[in-house]
Structures are given as structure tokens and as C-alpha cells.
């Protein structure tokens, strides 16, 4: 019944259903990129070999010489042989056109097909038509594909599965999912290839539900079918569904091939499922596929994304003993170290890569620049200047590095260089520029770039761009202007802008706007722990202990918990982590002794503790003790006792740096004659000689 219904549908399918072809004979325009003149020349060497090569075979013979020429990509030779014949057969045309399709010379294939039709001596057979449809797919030329499909239907050409799948594939690859589905439903016979094509078309079009329904309906599910649905679900952001299908595939006993393993490993990395990744690695070893470059790359990437850098290094070392291109392996390792917050190791790996004579591509350079940015090594980022070619990602990465380090003028200068070199900025580039203006309090420049991005580059502002402008006005103390900007641009429903405004209120001690921002956040039910704590600290600053107590009670009622502050420092490839009042470190007694001495020295230099920041109505001495042993101070003291005098220190914190710690570290940089870089949740702070880059 099902086959009969499909035959009936095929018979009833009129040309306008899938296309609107005219009744004129099939004719296709020669693509503008196709220049057939060179193809008409026949090399002398081939002419001399013609008799022995079999060029005198009759046209009906199955495999003419042009076929072997085309397969070997000797297209000039193939056309030369074709043009030498007084009467060109369908088989000869098939060899040239199919060869073009196989080799990716789609424009040449379309041009040859147009010639064949114009000559009129040989009618296109199923092989020619399938090849031409592949050329349409390669060019994304759905209009020509529709004309060919319409011609097939009008002329009653028998559509076998190969030709039907070629039509189906053409619509799918040209992005016409609806026509692909209708052509699929009209097919009298379908195979696994047919199902895979239409499922892939749905996934490409974002129709996840439709693709899953088709997959479940399919009576033939081979390895390729499972690979198609799993990888497609991943591309559409449905990682959990993809994982479920992977487990079903394993339980069904379907054999995994190298593409299955690569896809599954990418899924494990995407979801940070190290145990799954290890199980897959075991199966890879059993299947003897670890030497496959595709699988090996996926293994390294999975371990990097799961944070298991030691395992990734082991695979990298084994790879280095094999032959083949190592560029991707180096790039994966550099990126992996950056993703895992091990920027100094990423940069060391990058330098080792260059010493080994491996050329850095744009992707690796971008990762290396990001490593320098995240680690606070701005000067090292000047590798950037030696890059032979710079794409927008590399420019943007360097520009954002300057922005996060408070070097607004340098970021703007870099942006101007980028424009002078005819590199068009994208949305992320403009976020970096506006952020640079914000951190540098460059209000007029920020307003200029916000206008420029819309009028010159046609970039529609996203919430990231709007938030940069709110931050720009907030940092400059223009809180009324920031509030007006929020209202004028109809972004009152975006919690991030109110959090940004609240942060500015803390800096400028503006309780009026702080109440407005916090009330807006509470209405939006987006008042997170950080916002509550910020407002609580503002109340404490103004000695409003009753308001502070009420707010803390409200936090407890709503189950809002403050994220514990943590600071860490990398020394000799070991990460040392601290929390406030921490005594777990083996050198804690030395750390506290160092801090006690430092605080006495800082007071001599003019430092006073910010008691107003302690959100408790307690005695002054108790509040000073509460401030003295914050996590960033402990990490700094450990760095001081663990490194030679004058060594720069790089400290990281998971939250915004405490205002008192910020003030103290400024004085420490002068007292110890050190540069101290603190990377908090929002930016880098470069402390030197009692000054900070954030001003």
C-alpha cells in the first residue's frame, strides 16, 4: 500500500508543485565563473597517446578515456579528448560532467552540461543528470536544480533511487527543506540514503522535532543514520537529546565508525562528561582507531574541554611520534590551556610550538592572544604585530585585551588601525571598543562609536552594547544619564543594566539611584546574591544598620546565598587557593605574619582600613580584623613570601575585588616595589607604585 501510494503521488505530482518550469526545452545558463576556453585546448602529448589509450573506441562503450582523465582531475586533457571526437557521445559527456562534479568544479560541470544541451547530439542520461544536480548542490543553485527536476517530470524520465536521491540532496543542500520533504514523500522507493538526506535537511533547517519524528519512523537505520541525527541535534543545541540517542545507538548494537567516535567525543566534551569520554577512549583503543587523525583530534579536544589536560598531553606526545600535520594538535593544546584558566602554560606551549617551526594559524594566534589577555601579559600580546595576516577575530581578541586591562586609548588606536586596514568590525569588536571607552571613562568617544556601529556598519545594538553604554555613563558618575538611557532604549526589562547601574551607585555612593536599581531588580525577580550584597554594603557604608539587617533577613527568606569569595595564585605550575580567614594552607602562619607586618607598613604610608565596608555594627577593631584577612590579601601575602623581591604577582578572584583590598594592594605595590595584577570577575587591575590601571 505504501509503495502504491507513493507511485500515485509521483504520478499526480505536477511540475508547478516542486518548480514552475516553462514548457520550453531544458536550458541552463553557463555560470559566469566558468571559462571554457582553456578546456578546449588539447595537449600534444595526449594526441600522441590517443590510439594506444583507446580513443578510437565506439561511443557506446561503457568507460571512455575522458572518464579516467576526469577522475584524475586532468580536465584539460578530458576536454581535449572530447573535442577531438567528430561526434560526441552521451558517455563522453558523462565522463567530463561527472568528473567535474566529483572534483568540485561545479561551474565547469554546469558549463559543459549547457554545451551538451546546445549541441543537441546526445540526450542527457541518468548519470549526467545526477552529476549536474550535484553541481547545482555545490553551487547552491536551487533555480537550475528546479528546472532540471521539472524537465525530468515533464519528460517522464524514470527516476530510480540514485536520481531521486540526487534531486533530494540538491534541495537539501540548497536549503529548501520543504521541497526536499515533498520530493521525499513522492519517491516510490527509498533507502537509508534517502532517509538520511531528508533528516539532515530538517536538522539544517532547525526543525529538530521533524527530524526526530522522521528518524523514529525510518525502517532502516545504519551507522550513518545515527551519526546524522546525533551530530544534527548537537548543532541545534540539543546536547541532552543527542546524548540520549547515543546511548540508544550503543544499546542497539550499531557499529561505531570513526565519525561516530569523533561526534561522541565532541558531545562528551560539550557536556564535560569525563567518564563518558574515558569509556569512548577505551572503545577507540579496542577498535584500533586511535591512529585515525580525526579521532585523535577529538580525543585531545574532549580531554581539554573536560579539564583533564594531563590526558590531553599524553595523546599529544603520542601524536608527535606519528607522521602527519601537527598544527591542529598544537592549536588544540594552546586553546585547551586557555579554556582551563592555565594561561601561562598556554603561552609557554605556544612559544614551544614556534620554536619547533610550526606555523601559527589565525585560530592559534587568537588563542595565544587570549592567553596573554587573561593572564595579564599585555606586552607578550605584541606577538600580534608579527602575524602576517590578521582576521577580525585576532583584531577583536587583542582589542578586548586592551579594554579589559583598562588601556582604553590603546584599544581605540587599535580599532582605528583595524579600520585603516579594511577589516570590517563585527558585533563583538564593538562590544570591545565600547567596553574600552567605559573602563577609560571616555564618554564622548563611547557615544561616537555607539552611533558609528549603527550608521556606518549597520550593526543593530544588542543588550551587550546597551549595557556597555550604561556602564560608560555609570563609571563617569553620570547616573541620571545612565537611567535616562535605560528608559529611552526600552531596556528596563533587562536585569543586567540595573545590576550595572547598581554597581556604579556603589562607587559613587548614590543611594537614590541604588534604591531605584535594586527595586527594579526585585520586580524582575533578578536580584541575585551579588546585587543584595552590593546594596547591603552601601547601607553599611552609610551606617544604616537597620536597613542592612532587613536586607540580610530578606536574603535568608528568599534562600539567597552569597557566593564565597576565593582568590588564587599560580606559582611553579601549582594553583594555591584561599578563602577569607583561611588557615588550611601549609604556610598559613608565615602568610599571617607577613600580612601583619605589611599592614603596619601600609599605615605608615597613609593607608587606612575601610571600616565602613563591614556590614556589621561592631567595634572598629573587630571590623579591621574582618577586613585584614580577605582572600586576595592572603594570596598576595603568599606570593610575596614565595617569590624573589620585585617579582610581579598575578592574582585571580572569582568575585569583584573588595574596595578595601583594592586600596591596600595599591600601597603594597609601593611598599614592596612590585607590579601586582589582580584579575577579578570584571576586569584586570594593574597595581604599580600605589596606582591602579582602573583609576
Automatic annotation (TrEMBL):
<dbReference type="InterPro" id="IPR046960">
    <property type="entry name" value="PPR_At4g14850-like_plant"/>
</dbReference>
<dbReference type="GO" id="GO:0008270">
    <property type="term" value="F:zinc ion binding"/>
</dbReference>
<dbReference type="Pfam" id="PF20430">
    <property type="entry name" value="Eplus_motif"/>
</dbReference>
<protein>
    <recommendedName>
        <fullName>DYW domain-containing protein</fullName>
    </recommendedName>
</protein>
<dbReference type="Pfam" id="PF01535">
    <property type="entry name" value="PPR"/>
</dbReference>
<feature type="compositionally biased region" description="Low complexity">
    <location>
        <begin position="8"/>
        <end position="30"/>
    </location>
</feature>
<dbReference type="InterPro" id="IPR011990">
    <property type="entry name" value="TPR-like_helical_dom_sf"/>
</dbReference>
<feature type="repeat" description="PPR">
    <location>
        <begin position="391"/>
        <end position="425"/>
    </location>
</feature>
<dbReference type="Pfam" id="PF20431">
    <property type="entry name" value="E_motif"/>
</dbReference>
<feature type="repeat" description="PPR">
    <location>
        <begin position="222"/>
        <end position="256"/>
    </location>
</feature>
<keyword id="KW-0809">Transit peptide</keyword>
<feature type="repeat" description="PPR">
    <location>
        <begin position="326"/>
        <end position="360"/>
    </location>
</feature>
<feature type="repeat" description="PPR">
    <location>
        <begin position="160"/>
        <end position="194"/>
    </location>
</feature>
<keyword id="KW-0677">Repeat</keyword>
<dbReference type="GO" id="GO:0009451">
    <property type="term" value="P:RNA modification"/>
</dbReference>
<feature type="repeat" description="PPR">
    <location>
        <begin position="89"/>
        <end position="123"/>
    </location>
</feature>
<dbReference type="InterPro" id="IPR032867">
    <property type="entry name" value="DYW_dom"/>
</dbReference>
<feature type="region of interest" description="Disordered">
    <location>
        <begin position="48"/>
        <end position="69"/>
    </location>
</feature>
<dbReference type="InterPro" id="IPR046848">
    <property type="entry name" value="E_motif"/>
</dbReference>
<feature type="region of interest" description="Disordered">
    <location>
        <begin position="1"/>
        <end position="30"/>
    </location>
</feature>
<dbReference type="InterPro" id="IPR002885">
    <property type="entry name" value="PPR_rpt"/>
</dbReference>
<dbReference type="InterPro" id="IPR046849">
    <property type="entry name" value="E2_motif"/>
</dbReference>
<dbReference type="GO" id="GO:0003723">
    <property type="term" value="F:RNA binding"/>
</dbReference>
<dbReference type="Pfam" id="PF14432">
    <property type="entry name" value="DYW_deaminase"/>
</dbReference>
<dbReference type="Pfam" id="PF13041">
    <property type="entry name" value="PPR_2"/>
</dbReference>
<feature type="domain" description="DYW">
    <location>
        <begin position="606"/>
        <end position="694"/>
    </location>
</feature>
